[in-house]
Amino acid sequence: MKQTIMVVEDDEMIRNLIQIYLNKNGYEVVEACDGEEAKGIFLEYEPCLIILDLMLPKISGEEFYAWIRDQQQNEVSIIMLSAKVRIEDKISGLNSGADAYMTKPFDPNELVANVEAVLRRTGHFCEKIVHEGLCIKPKKGIVLLYGKEVKLTKYEFNILYYFMQNPNMVLSREQLIKKIYPSEENSIMDRTIDAHIKKLREKVEDHPARPNRVQTVRGMGYKFVTNN
């Protein structure tokens, strides 16, 4: 899966330039034009790395960065990209926890090189699958729904992880039983899976009776639906 990078920059021309270079190098890119919009985009996509301008409208880059840390999202890497060129600004940015600090004007190839260097150092902390605000971190055993932790049982977690690894694919109850109960598959009944799905929907769906994420495919099984 391609890693997602978020670009927070109020200058549309610069945003587009960065997006072109990142796309060319195989990254998914999401964008925000101010600090306020950045909060919503962050909660929906949970990017692994953020390229952050500091002089933003509405909410400054420094304030947005503080908000990220308040979300206990320490695994997110930050590259500050700013017109603040004083040595004190660079030192302040790096001391606050940024992984790199670049000044404008910049060479987009150098920016991409910085992105790759930062992800080589930190990418292993950012193993997650994200679909439309729902984020699962398998190594940490954590599920977030728009930034808020969702408590799942072991079976619900494993079912959701399997679904999110296989978005938009129909998975039969037999496949789910083999995956979730590998040593007990002959003694587990279909309705056990149905019960797990019901509980899972109550925790990750806005309207469990009319689910958008975990949908029933009549006569076949279930499908985790995304718009990606």
Short account of what is shown:
The protein has eight helices and twelve strands. The protein has helices at about 10-25, 35-45, 60-70, 85-95, 110-120, 155-165, 175-180, 190-205, and strands at about 5-10, 30, 50, 75-80, 100-105, 130, 135, 140-145, 150, 170, 215, 220-225. Strand 11 and strand 12 form a beta hairpin.
How does the SSE layout of this entry go?
Layout: E1 4-8, H1 12-24, E2 28-32, H2 35-45, E3 49-52, H3 61-70, E4 77-82, H4 87-95, E5 100-103, H5 108-122, E6 129-131, E7 134-137, E8 142-145, E9 148-149, H6 154-165, E10 170-171, H7 173-180, H8 190-204, E11 214-217, E12 221-224
Parallel strand pairs: 1-2, 1-3, 3-4, 4-5
Antiparallel strand pairs: 6-7, 7-8, 8-9, 10-12, 11-12
Helix pairs in contact: 1-5, 2-3, 6-8
Describe this structure in words.
The strands form three sheets. The chain has a five-stranded parallel beta sheet with strand order 2-1-3-4-5, with helices on both faces. The chain contains eight helices and twelve strands. The longest helix has 15 residues, at 108-122. It is an alpha/beta fold and 228 residues long. The two termini are 12 Å apart. Helix 1 crosses helix 5 and helix 6 crosses helix 8. 41% of the residues lie in helices and 21% in strands. Strand 7 and strand 8 form a beta hairpin.
Features:
five-stranded parallel beta sheet; 12 strands; elongated; four-stranded antiparallel beta sheet; 228 residues; 41% helix; alpha/beta
The order of strands across the largest sheet is: 2-1-3-4-5
- Quick one: overall form? elongated
Mean pLDDT: 93
Report the structural category.
alpha/beta
Q: From the alpha-carbon coordinates, what is the Rg to the nearest angstrom?
A: 20 Å
First-last Cα distance: 12 Å
Low-confidence stretches: none
Strand element count: 12
Number of discrete helical segments? 8
Biggest beta-sheet profile: 5 strands, parallel
Order of helices and strands: EHEHEHEHEHEEEEHEHHEE
Please report which band the strand proportion falls in: under 5%, 5-15%, 15-25%, 25-35%, 35-45% or over 45%. Answer: 15-25%
Helix content: 40-55%
